[in-house]
Amino acid sequence: MNKRQKLIPLNKLNLTDRFLFEEVMEDPLAHQEALGIILGRDVPLLQRNETEKGLRISPEARSVRLDIFSMDEDRAVYNTEMQKQRRADLSRRSRYYQSLVDISLLEPGIPDYSQLNESYLIMITPFDLFGCGKYRYTFRAVCEEEPECILEDGATRIFLNTRGTNDDEVSQELVEFLHYVEHTTDEAAEHAGSERIRRIHNRVRKVRNSEEVGVKYMQAWEEKYYEKEEARKEGLKEGRAEGRAEGRKEERIDLVKKKLEKGKSVEEIAEALEETEEAIQELIKELGH
């Protein structure tokens, strides 16, 4: 099959596709509109977003790449992630992401943790991670003994589900936005009553019509394709090597068996096969002797 048949055209991508999401939300105004819809308030972002922001606390620790990272005029930070594939570790992944963001915010030597920024981690998914039918799940630390007592640590995690069913519990604008995220079409934007969604769609159209972005998309796709091909070929090589090694081992075991039947000692078999006595003992164990 021609590999290009698997390439989805740029103008057919939805915002659930990470490439389009990052290209659109790299524009602070588009990200600002999205955050305004999600949080239900104006979010005056500074005029700079970071896409694929890398974070690592040490060379040995696992690094992460954040989809969109922004800061507003009050120094609150927003990490907005698009997660198209369902994974079992998303809750704990959000914990790790937020902890790395926190570590990156305080400069060495600052003793006052009250200077730690307000932090929002927002994960958008085209599935219901928690199975309660909600469009939005907002998590802040609360006291088990006193649920009204909230730990005011400034950290908020929000999971958005494009397929929620609780329309009467959230704003119509959020419902329309989440539908638009999964179905990023001219029709969805036109039928939305939200001017903010239409302004986001204007950015989407600019991205889709950009020759520069089109080239970038092709390059990104081909890079991923060749990475997968290399991984597949490497896997085949390893499989063949393992098969050959297993075949050689079976031959050795067969030879050991024949020599044992002839009454040869472990020392004699080791000398004949140019192996150590320990290696021959291991082969004999596999024979069940």
Query: Would you tell me the structural class of the helices and strands?
Result: alpha/beta
Number of helices: 9
User: What assembly state would you assign to the polypeptide chains in this entry?
Assistant: single chain
- Which range does the strand content fall in? 5-15%
Mean pLDDT: 86
Low-confidence parts, pLDDT < 50 over ≥5 residues?
Answer: none
- Head-to-tail CA distance between termini: 52 Å
Backbone shape: elongated
Which strands sit side by side, in order, in the main sheet? 1-2-3-4-6-5
Order of helices and strands: HHEEEHEEEHHHHHH
Overall number of domains: 2
Radius of gyration (Å): 28 Å
Briefly summarize what is shown.
By secondary structure, this protein is α/β, with parallel strands linked by helices. It has nine helices and six strands.
Describe it:
The chain is an alpha/beta fold and 289 residues long. The chain contains 9 helices and 6 strands, in the order ααβββαβββαααααα. The chain has a 6-stranded mixed β-sheet. Strand 3, helix 3 and strand 4 form a beta-alpha-beta unit. The protein is elongated.
